[in-house]
Amino acid sequence: MPRTTTLENPGCPPLRALTFDVLGLIKVIEAKGEEKAAAKVVERWGEPDSTRAVVAASILDREIDPLLGVARKNGLVDVLNPVNGDIQVSIPNVSQTDVYPEADAIIGLHLFRKQRLESLSRSITFLTCTIKGRTSMKSIEIPQSCTDTISDAAQTTWNTCGSGDILFSKVDENECYALFGGKGVEVNVWDIHTSTKIWTAKSPVKNNLGIFTPTWFTSGSFLSKDHRKFVSGTNSHQVRLYDVSAQRRPIMSFDFGETAIKAVTGDLDGYTIYAGNGSGDLASVDIRTGKLLGCFLGKCSGSIRSIVRHPELPVIASCGLDSYLRIWDIKSRQLLSAVFLKQHLSDVVFDSYFRNEVGGSTDLPHQLQGLNDISEGTEDEGIVPDKRKKASKVHKGSKKLKLRNEGKNSDLPPQPQDLNKIPEMIRAKRKKASKVHKGSEKHKLRKNRQEQ
Description:
By secondary structure, this protein is mainly beta. The chain is built from five helices and 28 strands. WD repeats lie at residues 297-338.
């Protein structure tokens, strides 16, 4: 039998996440950070409608005036308040194509934060990309109410592919470059401001058997703040690392699992990536050496469709077709909490400015807060251990113990106050012990011999 180690679940730290599913529902999941407490659903926004399925989401994560963008299957883009779910503006038919929106659905959405910081008005700039490669960057004014009309704004449109289907699009940390890839489309990098392609990948060479792997990219992500390095996943269960400044072919490639890679994302350190595939496997990899750091404990029963790293806490969230939102610890790769949400999930985002008013401050993880609470409690009160020792049968202050001690001490001679009297008491005790009791058998035999 293999030796196993059971780890106690420390509970989920205080956080807030928003999930999106195939029925167009947005669900808010919160964890209060209490000991061994699991995350749970606190709100649900929208009504179930398969035509309004969420296909992409992006959050403008700010403490003041945050915004949440949601792209739907019917071509509609909703901009909401992530705090209460109120719709700020709805932009219909973003793709503006002659075909049905479902045939050329949006697959990527990004809300820009730089343009919003520079603008003094209530405007927002966002980027969308469809399956056929139609990419547009548009700026609109947010009206005061939903009934007001949307004023026309500047829009830039370009095509990212001539053939094939785009399956993912990502924007780098500095919001200057965009990454695209898909089925029959090699990964390529575009300059957003000039709408020009600056780099295109080259297909890998044939293997030893002369078999060429067809181009089919399913996911991708930039690494930290460097737009020159990015990682992508393929349908042939490969994870590839590219460096724009080095070469057009991948500088590193490795297989993960036996099914297609469905989601990849990078860590804040810039060299750790997280990959999930169609069979529910989730693992972390160090791209500096190509070493598999380990798989996350707990088997997922469905395809993973989204992985997101929390900006502050050392946790990641994953969701997919098994309808579960799972929160993982990136250090121990242990499952902290799992929430069943009934519908197939397509995406998840974190609200990093969530503050738990009930559980206290969220600046530190829950484990550190627990240690601080214990250290503060030892100054004023005694700490009761988790497993108490068995109480003694007789309490020290009970009457039975006092009587027992008195009975034991009654046979002893009185203790002298003067230390010089101790030798005399010892001799008296020995003399008393040497005497034979008058009623004993030895005494009777000795008396009979003397009479004879």
